[in-house]
Amino acid sequence: MKLTMLGTGNALVTEVYNTCFLLEDETRENDGYFLVDAGGGNGILKQLKRAGTNWRDVHEIFITHKHIDHFLGALWLIRMILQKSAKGEYKGETNIYGHDEVISLLLLTSRALLNEKEIGQIGKTLHFIAVSDGESRTILGREVTFFDIRSTKAKQYGFCMRLKNGEKFTCCGDEPYNDCEEKYAKGSEWLMHEAFCLYSQADKFSPYEKHHSTVKDACELAELLGVKNLILYHTEDSAIQRRKETYAEEGKAFYHGNLFIPDDLESVDIKEE
User: Fold this and answer.
1) Environment class of 141 (CB within 10 Å of its CB; exposed 0-12, middle 13-18, buried 19+)
2) Bridge partners of 260?
């Protein structure tokens, strides 16, 4: 399986796209993509194109929460799917997963902005699926369990995917780890965790006031949880050309596994052997 980071930045970035990513199973012909979040606008279409992925081929989508930088891009995908479906120009069916608040807001906004013919395709080619805390679904032929991260800002879900080798691939959303996530995150082969900035620059970026983590925090957590591979994302972009270098330098003092600080459109091979 392959992970491609379509965006790696936080809400206010201008040098990179907002955090969202694509999981791809290259062995599956017609349903090989799982998109997690969509950023804050129609840039999601550009990022998918730059990644070599046709938006028409993405049939599994998960929106973690309603913050603008994760949510609004989904509306562009919804528009494209329903618009083309209404014209008979769309093949297959697409599922959008999210907790009840996300699904309700997506439906409300879609019905307010799109025409009746397009709205009429909801439930036919496009399915909005509300998932609950601890609920599992089969996506890309793998069990995916959604869980409430107990956000203090807006209700948010992460997920844990069981890889083909039995190991766990866990995404903790875009807020600091909460103890309620332990059964999913502990011992994960792969952990995705936000890192708003360097700990050494916490005074400059105020991550804790925004309820975010630093590189040091995320790396200490991964070490404690016995994570083998840690992927950092949802960062500031003030010195994007040196981000990979500076984040790795700080992180290696606290974490001894494999540390990834991907750039936009960079892919990571998620081994399942």
Assistant:
1) exposed
2) 231
Residue 29 confidence (pLDDT):
80
CATH code (residue 220):
3.60.15.10
Residue 137 lies in a domain: yes
Other C-beta atoms closer than 10 Å to the C-beta of 58 total 21
Q: Is 46 within a domain?
A: yes
- Note whether residue 216 is domain-resident: yes
pLDDT of residue 273: 81
When divided into structural domains, the chain yields a total of 1
Beta partners for residue 250, in sequence order: none
Q: State which residues form the domain around 79.
A: 2-266
Among 192, 190, 194, 171, which Cα is nearest to 271's?
190
Q: What is the pLDDT of residue 30?
A: 75
Burial of 115 (0-12, 13-18, 19+ CB in 10 A): exposed
Q: Which two tokens stand for residue 165?
A: 């080798």
* Ranges in the chain, pLDDT < 70: none
Tokens of residue 224, six digits = 């404690």
Residue 272 belongs to a domain: no
Largest CA distance in the chain: 57
Q: Could you read off the pLDDT of 60-118 as tens digits, one per residue?
A: 999 999 999 999 999 999 999 999 999 999 999 999 999 999 999 999 999 999 999 99
Give me the phi and psi of 263, to 5 degrees please: -85, 165
